[in-house]
Amino acid sequence: MASGSSSVPDLPEEETQALLSLFSEDITDWLFSACPVEGENQEMTEKGGKERACEESIRPVLDDKELEDFVEMQKNINTKRKTASDLKTWYKWCKSIKEERLIEDIPPVELDRLLGHFYCKIRRTDGNFYEPDTLICFQRSLDRYLKEKHKTYSIIRDAEFASSRQKLVACRKMLKKEGKGSRSKASESLGDDEIQQLWENGALGCSGPEVLQNTIWFLLCVHMGMRGRDEHYKLTFGDLELKCSSDGSKYIEFSERDTKTRSGESNNTRAFKPKMWSTPSNPEKCPVLIFEKYIAQRPTEMCNPDSPFYLSINYKPGDGAHWYKKQKMGKDRIGQIMKRISTQGSLQGRKTNHSARKTMITKLAHCDVPDSRIMQLSGHKNVQSLNSYKQASLKQQQHMSHILSSYKDIEQMKDKEFSKNDVASNSAMPLGLFQGANISNCTININCNTNNTATHSQLN
Fold first, then answer.
1. Which DSSP string corresponds to 315-356?
2. Which of 7, 190, 445, 455 could form a Cys-Cys staple with 359, CB 3.0–4.6 A?
3. Domains of the chain and any CATH numbers
4. Does the predicted TM-score (pTM) go above 0.85?
5. Over the stretch 70-121, which tens digit does the pLDDT of each residue have?
6. What are phi and psi of 196, to 5 degrees?
């Protein structure tokens, strides 16, 4: 080599790779001390090498497993449980036919054949058939799992699984003919008379800590469109704020967290924050007064913005003690609130926590509130989702039956007869004002309103 030039000894390739893999500040010091660089460039080269080595040493490690775990944690817990349960049913059936492969390892052609047998032959542990809708749930859960395993095909949509889908449809038809799926397990909404019954029987009100808390839960479901358990369990004291409008009306405003349909996956948000307004003319049922009563019975330490909203009940409060403890109410107990209200109020039918939210949507629909406005309050993203709530009430069903039977209720006949007599007596009164008068070439319109019944008379 020419004198005065930098000389770096050649190292075997294996030794070079080992040095690079262990590259650190100590290795850098050793490397540059072992391989001197002549002149002023030596200090700059050594300094630059140390900086690069330092950057390498502090560079964060990208842990893909940690990210996968984070994504898994954000999935809906109920969806995860349902998928796991249905996948377990699938593998249990596969084991009975000596099929040991994982579902994601089975080629599509074979999987299509197995799915067809699965839909038609799967049974409960007691030997009975599953409900028709349960078979659809199996299909969706398996498809969801395969998607999570990065499979490019879909057992719900793709043509290569048409045969299994045909067998699924045929099996559902057979089960329908045998009476399966005819018993509705859907929650029932509450009618106005049932809600009034709850107030009269003391199931709703402010008479005690449990009744008060149950009433707050019911009001938040009906007015805010909150789902019956999880959204209430996540609710904090700061999510509800007492406000006052410009005309002096008080109301409670709800700031929503993540929900089933708005989990942060998109920018979908409510059109407005749900509100619950005061009813000064009916103080016993006023939502704002009941809310203020509930707040007054909480420990002061549990009135911070991040404090849980629902607290455990203090069943033996001393003199001056609060009704509620400094402890969060359990999720399972929240999940049984409507059942306790229904039992105490002696209600009939299937009443679950979802009944309260269903009451809100059903009542608004029966009052002809536009679907677009109902969706803004309930938080539904698709107008088709509201169709399941638009069931005729028991009163409406009775009315339709009476129409078809040409049956007129006695009380209705009395009211109609009263209205006719009332209108006749009142409609004659204004005409007496013009007796003896000579009126020509004009039109006079007279409207008489009595008991919401209007008559129209015209004189020419």
1. SS--TT--SEEEEEPPHHHHTTHHHHHHHHTT--S---HHHH
2. 190
3. 13-58 (no CATH), 75-177 (no CATH), 192-261+270-396 (1.10.443.10), 410-459 (no CATH)
4. no
5. 555 556 677 888 999 999 999 999 999 999 999 999 999 999 999 999 999 9
6. -60, -35
